[in-house]
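The authors assume throughout that readers already know how a fold can be written as discrete tokens. A single example would do more here than another paragraph of explanation. An entry of this sort, consisting of the sequence and the corresponding backbone structure tokens, reads as follows:
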Amino acid sequence: MATFTNFQALLQLGGGGGGGTLATILASGNATGGSDILFSASTGDGIDTENNAAGAGFSLDIEGSDAGGGVFAGGDINLTPGSGSGGGPDGVVNIAGDLIVTGTVSLSNLIVGAGTPEGSVAATVSTIFQRTDGGAGNSVYFKQSGAAATGWVPAGPPVFETFVAVGVPTFVTSRAVFDDTLALGVENIAVFWNGVLQREGGLDDYTVVFGGASATVTLTSTPPPGDFITIRYLPA
């Protein structure tokens, strides 16, 4: 049997021309012999569901309305917890079981989009950006500093490129390299000569120039032909 102890809740769910649909649902549920839907049940206000007296369990479906002819947006489904009062906490949305999402999830601290967020997406520190057109090393970014559009860092893992020396000191990456700044303090690029880590800087082992589509590493000494130069970096 269906039990209604809150007439306003019944109006909200079945009003506006939807009463017939509600009656159909309740009649179908009552055929099982169980108490299926409770409005403002004894355990608390709201909508509760109970096990059927016999037979399989039932599903509770809440669907937004479909638009009619022409170009109109479909109806949303909004879950808005109540606000607390007198210092009490606000309500939350609790999901006790598994959550299966077939569409896109949009959260204030989780952003999905194309291209690098650096310089184009403003967010607060700790925000995560999932890049839909990213590749190895730059599919996910995290916001490490600032509240504007800068301060994004690719989450990695880093990319390794190995070159066989041919008698020249210059090596160019095949991809754009994240331009590390002193403010971020990220160990973005490292160069190895036959497995030995080199020192960066004009008076040390190599210098690096970041470009729009690649990075150019120039060693202070020219490696003999056949030596291996490996560049490790985070892509832009």
In short: Residues 13 and 22 are 8 Å apart (CA to CA).
